[in-house]
Amino acid sequence: MGATVEIPVELYNKWLRAGEALDEWHDAFEDFLIFNNPALVRRLREARQQQLSGKTRPWEEFKRDFAASRKRAR
């Protein structure tokens, strides 16, 4: 299994560009799905307003409470 396969630089660069294009498409499609879901957009806006108004709590506190709730659910 120690064989080495050499890939031409041009082919490798095409592969990289294809991967970047797929990432861009994925991001655009995800945006499309989000913004065509009015309920989700509403929830995101509400969450942003809560954040801006200071209605948040520290991450460590959330993590602790979440872990405790999972233990109770078992």
Note the main attributes of this structure.
74 residues, mainly alpha, 0% strand, single chain, 3 helices, 77% helix
Descriptive account of the structure:
It is a single chain. With 74 residues, the chain is mainly alpha-helical. The chain has one domain (9-73). It contains three helices and no strands. It has helices at residues 9-35, 38-52, 59-73. The N and C termini lie far apart (46 Å). The relative contact order is 0.05.
SSE layout and pairing:
Layout (H helix, E strand, L loop, with lengths): L8 H27 L2 H15 L6 H15 L1
Helix content class: over 70%
Largest sheet: none
Rg over C-alpha atoms, rounded to the nearest angstrom? 22 Å
Q: Strand tally, please?
A: 0
Shape: flat
Distance between the termini: 46 Å
SS field, number of helical segments: 3
- The figure for the number of domains is 1
Q: Detail the poorly predicted runs.
A: none
- In round numbers, the mean pLDDT is 94
Q: Which structural category fits the helices and strands?
A: mainly alpha
Order of helices and strands: HHH
Could you provide a short overview of the structure?
This protein is mostly helical. The chain is 77% helix and 0% strand.
